Amino acid sequence: MGSWLSMNHSRRPERKPRHPPHPKFGFPPEPFPFCRALICNSPVQYPPSRPWSKGRWARLQQMYYIGFLKILSSCVLVAQELNSIHWQLVLITKKHHLRNFMYRKQWQHLTLYVSFFLSGCADVVSQNLLPKRCAVLEQGAQALSMYLFLPLMVSHMQDTEGVELQTHMLLIQAMFLLTLVGTVELWAPNVLLIWVLKAFLYIVTGSWLIQIGFMLYKPISGYKWMDDDKNDVAFATTFFCWHVASGAFLVILAYGFSFLWHHYLGADV
Question: What predicted TM-score, i.e. pTM, was given to this entire model?
Answer without folding.
Answer: 0.75
